[in-house]
Q: What sequence folds into this?
């Protein structure tokens, strides 16, 4: 479930960055259409992947409950950390992305 | 639609705040009960040992009863509960120590059961409280749907929260906590309606009149055991129940037993029914049970709940109650519940804040807005005061006081009433800020010092539980401390006489809807 939660947070951060206002706030500069589309694809991809990952590791009921829990808590975390500590919000996504392969290995081994 | 959201939200907001707050507390119902009855100490014992002790005790003390119930201890509630229906008279229950098998002399308290009951019965006679709570749930559903429809920028502002901008911040917070936790809000509201339909409207009143309202929701689990049979005249000793647990472990791998029901113990046609522990699967399955012959100990029949409609209702019920949730998921349930409570609270604050703007210059609020402000204060900070008073009363009322658990409940309502009176006096004869400030300060003090009170009055239980590695008592104290710090932060916002909120909102006025 760690993997699914990480993917949720990374996915939401990418979706957030695909909007020009948040992109400017967090990274500075303006967002090109191509990059916005790319970030959107990464974001939705990560969210869908996280659902698939949850379904693959648990029974359907538990998977859905835990996936929704991960989805909601990662979005709440991002939205309420961002205005106060924008760099922390971004670093968490970076660390999350780096940990994805580790979590994937752990899930495969379990 | 906006009109519907605004007015439905206002009229039912105060009641919904109370329902959501006490409902949220109910996710830690067993933990709260453990704190309010620290005399019942957890032990690491096997289910077989517990059931043997319960069987011995019931054999010696309720041998001629019509029916026994045994509830085994688990990681969330330490008590070994035994209850029985005597040959003559009313339902009785006792709590046994799971290690010694002797009755525990614990202080009388409803504990978490009080908040749980209140969140859907509202301390009103059956069935009126349930009806009112369900109407409130219906209004909540309407407010959620109308809120989604009227929130035009739901995707554009999905990640938006702008702090320190007065009314703008309140609206952002209201939207964020509504949208980001929307799956929970929809699930909890819709499921409450389904539960009302199945439990209140179909619920046989006879069960309620037999057990009263204080029997820890036994009826939730009782259905398979309710096939009453007349006891046979011939007496035969009851088989040991513990070996039946082994058979159950084979039938339901990885599951535990929650409730054990023994019909006609000691008679030739005795039967034993084992029901699965509610925490082992998401759906609530009251019909799933194993029935054993009470004399030979052989498995007689296995009933499963497989009607699709019942299973769906069971799934919805299970999601609402969250019995299946482990510690992490349980905390997330609790936080999501706080999110729902915060959504209602911010909505109420926004309603008043927007209308206060028009009167900012005059400096005098009209009667109806004062009334709303009074109810806001009493329903929110007043309820927070009432909740903490319940815990204080639990530690301060003498253990031997007659009707002790009723007194705890009375203290809760007296304090809530006093908070309403205080809010009235402050809002109508001074200003709303002083009402908020004083109530939040007092609440912050009472929450922050609850751990101190616990250490002073029941410290020995706290240390003993920590030494054994049980965190529940300490976790409740720390949660109270965190709540107190949050309320103190809230109280700080109301410092001074100057109306900072209004001053800062006027700059955000063009943006506000």
A:
């Amino acid at each position: 479930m760690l993997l699914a939660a990480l993917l949720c947070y990374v996915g939401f951060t990418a979706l957030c960055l695909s909007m020009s206002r948040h992109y400017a706030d967090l990274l500075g500069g303006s967002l090109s259409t191509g990059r916005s589309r790319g970030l959107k694809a990464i974001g939705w991809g990560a969210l869908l992947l996280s659902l698939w990952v949850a379904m693959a590791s648990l029974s359907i009921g538990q998977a859905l409950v835990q996936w929704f829990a991960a989805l909601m808590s990662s979005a709440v975390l991002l939205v309420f950390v961002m205005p106060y500590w924008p760099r922390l919000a971004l670093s968490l996504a970076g660390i999350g992305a780096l940990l994805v392969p580790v979590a994937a290995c752990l899930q495969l081994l379990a | 639609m906006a009109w519907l959201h605004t007015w439905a939200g206002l009229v039912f907001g105060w009641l919904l705040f109370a329902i959501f707050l006490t409902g949220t507390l109910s996710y830690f119902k067993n933990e709260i009960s453990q704190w309010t009855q620290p005399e019942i100490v957890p032990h690491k014992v096997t289910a077989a040992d517990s059931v043997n002790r319960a069987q011995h005790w019931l054999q010696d003390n309720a041998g001629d009863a019509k029916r026994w119930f045994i509830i085994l201890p688990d990681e969330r509630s330490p008590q070994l509960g035994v209850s029985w229906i005597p040959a003559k008279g009313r339902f009785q229950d006792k709590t046994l120590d799971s290690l010694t098998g002797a009755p525990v002399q614990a202080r009388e308290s409803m504990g978490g059961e009080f908040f749980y009951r209140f969140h859907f019965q509202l301390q009103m006679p059956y069935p009126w409280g349930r009806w009112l709570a369900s109407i409130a749930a219906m209004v909540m559903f309407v407010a959620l749907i109308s809120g989604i429809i009227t929130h035009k920028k739901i995707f554009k502002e999905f990640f938006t929260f702008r702090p320190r901008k007065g009314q703008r911040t309140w609206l952002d917070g209201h939207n964020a906590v509504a949208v980001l936790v929307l799956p929970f809000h929809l699930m909890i509201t819709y499921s409450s309606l389904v539960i009302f339909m199945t439990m209140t409207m179909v619920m046989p009143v006879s069960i309620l009149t037999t057990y009263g309202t204080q029997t820890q929701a036994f009826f939730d689990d009782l259905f398979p055991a309710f096939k009453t049979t007349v006891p046979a005249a011939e007496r035969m000793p009851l088989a040991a129940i513990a070996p039946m647990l082994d058979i159950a472990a084979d039938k339901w791998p990885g599951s535990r037993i929650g409730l054990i029901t023994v019909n006609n113990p000691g008679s030739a046609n005795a039967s034993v029914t084992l029901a699965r522990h509610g925490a082992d699967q998401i759906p609530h399955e009251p019909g799933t049970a194993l029935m054993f012959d009470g004399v030979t100990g052989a498995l007689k029949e296995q009933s499963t709940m497989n009607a699709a409609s019942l299973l769906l209702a069971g799934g919805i019920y299970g999601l609402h109650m969250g019995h299946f949730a482990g510690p992490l998921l349980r905390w997330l349930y609790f936080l999501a519940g706080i999110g729902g409570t915060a959504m209602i609270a911010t909505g109420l604050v926004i309603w008043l804040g927007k209308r206060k703007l028009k009167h900012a210059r005059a400096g005098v609020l009209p009667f109806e807005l004062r009334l709303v402000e009074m109810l806001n204060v009493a329903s929110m900070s007043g309820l927070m005061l009432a909740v903490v008073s319940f815990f204080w009363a639990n530690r301060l009322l003498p253990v031997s006081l007659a009707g002790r658990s009723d007194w705890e409940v009375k203290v809760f309502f007296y304090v809530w009433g006093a908070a309403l009176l205080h809010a009235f006096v402050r809002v109508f004869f001074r200003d709303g800020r002083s009402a908020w400030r004083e109530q939040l300060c007092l609440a912050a003090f009472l929450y922050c010092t609850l751990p101190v009170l616990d250490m002073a009055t029941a410290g020995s239980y706290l240390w003993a539980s920590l030494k054994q590695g049980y965190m529940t008592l300490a976790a409740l104290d720390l949660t109270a401390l965190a709540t107190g710090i949050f309320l103190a932060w809230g109280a700080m916002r109301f410092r001074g006489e100057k109306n900072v909120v209004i001053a800062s909102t006027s700059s955000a006025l063009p943006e506000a809807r």
